[in-house]
Design goal:
With about 160 residues, the chain is an alpha+beta fold. Helices cover about 15% and strands about 45% of the residues.
Length: about 160
Protein backbone atom coordinates (compact mmCIF):
# COMPACT_ATOMS: atom_id res chain seq x y z
CA UNK A 1 0.00 0.00 0.00
CA UNK A 2 1.40 3.40 -1.04
CA UNK A 3 1.97 6.09 1.57
CA UNK A 4 -0.75 8.77 1.45
CA UNK A 5 0.62 11.83 -0.39
CA UNK A 6 -1.60 14.13 1.69
CA UNK A 7 0.01 12.83 4.87
CA UNK A 8 3.46 13.22 3.28
CA UNK A 9 2.69 16.88 2.49
CA UNK A 10 1.40 17.39 6.05
CA UNK A 11 4.50 15.83 7.59
CA UNK A 12 6.99 17.73 5.45
CA UNK A 13 5.03 20.94 5.89
CA UNK A 14 6.48 20.86 9.40
CA UNK A 15 10.00 21.02 7.94
CA UNK A 16 10.89 24.72 7.90
CA UNK A 17 12.75 25.61 4.70
CA UNK A 18 14.28 28.59 3.07
CA UNK A 19 12.68 29.79 -0.14
CA UNK A 20 14.48 30.06 -3.46
CA UNK A 21 13.69 31.11 -6.98
CA UNK A 22 15.52 28.98 -9.54
CA UNK A 23 16.07 30.80 -12.83
CA UNK A 24 17.46 29.92 -16.25
CA UNK A 25 18.08 31.54 -19.60
CA UNK A 26 19.49 30.37 -22.90
CA UNK A 27 18.34 28.89 -26.23
CA UNK A 28 15.06 27.60 -24.69
CA UNK A 29 14.27 31.01 -23.22
CA UNK A 30 14.09 32.58 -19.80
CA UNK A 31 12.25 30.74 -17.04
CA UNK A 32 12.01 30.30 -13.33
CA UNK A 33 10.23 28.59 -10.48
CA UNK A 34 9.96 28.75 -6.72
CA UNK A 35 11.68 25.81 -5.03
CA UNK A 36 12.50 24.61 -1.54
CA UNK A 37 13.86 21.18 -2.51
CA UNK A 38 17.38 22.61 -2.80
CA UNK A 39 20.55 21.19 -1.23
CA UNK A 40 24.27 21.81 -1.23
CA UNK A 41 25.60 18.46 -2.40
CA UNK A 42 29.40 18.57 -2.57
CA UNK A 43 32.24 20.99 -1.85
CA UNK A 44 34.77 19.29 -4.11
CA UNK A 45 33.62 19.56 -6.80
CA UNK A 46 31.17 22.34 -5.85
CA UNK A 47 27.74 20.83 -6.55
CA UNK A 48 24.15 21.70 -5.62
CA UNK A 49 20.88 20.05 -6.49
CA UNK A 50 17.34 21.18 -7.02
CA UNK A 51 14.34 18.87 -7.46
CA UNK A 52 11.94 20.11 -10.16
CA UNK A 53 8.53 18.62 -10.93
CA UNK A 54 8.46 17.08 -14.38
CA UNK A 55 5.25 19.06 -15.02
CA UNK A 56 6.82 22.42 -14.09
CA UNK A 57 6.93 24.87 -16.96
CA UNK A 58 10.61 25.67 -16.40
CA UNK A 59 11.68 22.00 -16.26
CA UNK A 60 12.33 21.79 -20.00
CA UNK A 61 13.95 25.25 -20.08
CA UNK A 62 16.48 24.32 -17.39
CA UNK A 63 17.29 21.03 -19.10
CA UNK A 64 17.63 22.57 -22.58
CA UNK A 65 19.52 25.68 -21.40
CA UNK A 66 21.93 23.54 -19.39
CA UNK A 67 22.17 26.07 -16.57
CA UNK A 68 20.36 27.55 -13.62
CA UNK A 69 20.84 30.01 -10.78
CA UNK A 70 19.49 29.43 -7.29
CA UNK A 71 18.42 32.72 -5.70
CA UNK A 72 18.00 32.45 -1.90
CA UNK A 73 15.24 34.89 -1.09
CA UNK A 74 15.28 37.60 1.57
CA UNK A 75 12.34 38.23 3.89
CA UNK A 76 11.06 41.09 1.73
CA UNK A 77 10.91 38.94 -1.45
CA UNK A 78 7.68 37.07 -0.79
CA UNK A 79 6.22 38.64 -3.95
CA UNK A 80 8.97 37.02 -6.06
CA UNK A 81 8.29 33.65 -4.45
CA UNK A 82 4.57 33.91 -5.20
CA UNK A 83 5.08 35.09 -8.79
CA UNK A 84 7.46 32.26 -9.68
CA UNK A 85 5.25 29.67 -7.92
CA UNK A 86 2.37 30.25 -10.35
CA UNK A 87 2.03 28.10 -13.47
CA UNK A 88 2.68 29.50 -16.92
CA UNK A 89 5.28 31.73 -18.53
CA UNK A 90 7.37 33.74 -16.06
CA UNK A 91 7.28 37.51 -15.99
CA UNK A 92 10.59 39.05 -14.92
CA UNK A 93 9.31 42.63 -15.25
CA UNK A 94 9.48 44.71 -12.11
CA UNK A 95 12.42 42.71 -10.74
CA UNK A 96 15.95 43.97 -11.00
CA UNK A 97 18.31 41.23 -12.08
CA UNK A 98 21.79 40.66 -13.40
CA UNK A 99 23.67 37.71 -14.84
CA UNK A 100 26.95 36.03 -13.93
CA UNK A 101 28.74 33.25 -15.81
CA UNK A 102 25.90 31.18 -17.31
CA UNK A 103 23.46 33.96 -18.16
CA UNK A 104 20.78 32.71 -15.74
CA UNK A 105 19.03 35.66 -14.06
CA UNK A 106 20.15 36.56 -10.54
CA UNK A 107 17.51 38.52 -8.64
CA UNK A 108 18.54 41.79 -7.03
CA UNK A 109 18.10 41.74 -3.28
CA UNK A 110 18.48 37.98 -2.92
CA UNK A 111 20.38 37.00 0.23
CA UNK A 112 22.65 34.76 -1.80
CA UNK A 113 22.92 33.02 -5.16
CA UNK A 114 24.78 30.27 -6.93
CA UNK A 115 25.14 30.16 -10.70
CA UNK A 116 25.36 26.60 -12.03
CA UNK A 117 26.05 24.58 -15.14
CA UNK A 118 23.83 21.51 -15.35
CA UNK A 119 26.00 18.40 -14.85
CA UNK A 120 23.50 15.58 -14.37
CA UNK A 121 19.77 14.85 -14.32
CA UNK A 122 18.56 12.07 -12.04
CA UNK A 123 15.05 10.62 -11.96
CA UNK A 124 13.18 11.10 -8.70
CA UNK A 125 9.58 9.95 -9.05
CA UNK A 126 7.44 12.81 -10.37
CA UNK A 127 10.48 15.12 -10.16
CA UNK A 128 13.89 15.26 -11.78
CA UNK A 129 16.92 16.14 -9.70
CA UNK A 130 19.09 18.69 -11.47
CA UNK A 131 22.68 18.49 -10.22
CA UNK A 132 24.57 21.66 -11.02
CA UNK A 133 28.22 22.58 -10.79
CA UNK A 134 28.62 25.98 -9.13
CA UNK A 135 30.56 28.37 -11.38
CA UNK A 136 29.81 31.59 -9.47
CA UNK A 137 28.07 32.73 -6.34
CA UNK A 138 27.80 35.35 -3.68
CA UNK A 139 26.04 36.33 -0.46
CA UNK A 140 25.03 39.51 1.33
CA UNK A 141 26.65 40.21 4.68
CA UNK A 142 23.31 40.70 6.43
CA UNK A 143 19.57 40.30 5.94
CA UNK A 144 16.83 37.96 7.03
CA UNK A 145 15.72 34.89 5.04
CA UNK A 146 12.25 34.17 3.74
CA UNK A 147 11.12 30.97 5.46
CA UNK A 148 8.24 28.60 4.63
CA UNK A 149 6.63 26.51 7.38
CA UNK A 150 3.25 24.80 7.73
CA UNK A 151 1.87 26.28 4.51
CA UNK A 152 2.79 29.90 5.33
CA UNK A 153 5.63 32.33 4.84
CA UNK A 154 7.43 33.02 8.10
CA UNK A 155 10.38 34.88 9.53
CA UNK A 156 12.99 33.83 12.03
CA UNK A 157 12.71 35.26 15.53
CA UNK A 158 15.66 37.27 16.81
Amino acid sequence: MAFDSKVQKQVFGKWATGVTVVTTDGPAGKGGLTANAVTSLSLNPPLVLVAVAKTAGSHAEIQQNGCYAINILALNQEDASKRFATPGPKDFSGFGWKTAVTGAPILEGALAFVDCRLKEVLAGGDHDIFVGEIVDGGAQDDGAPLVYFSGKYRQLAN
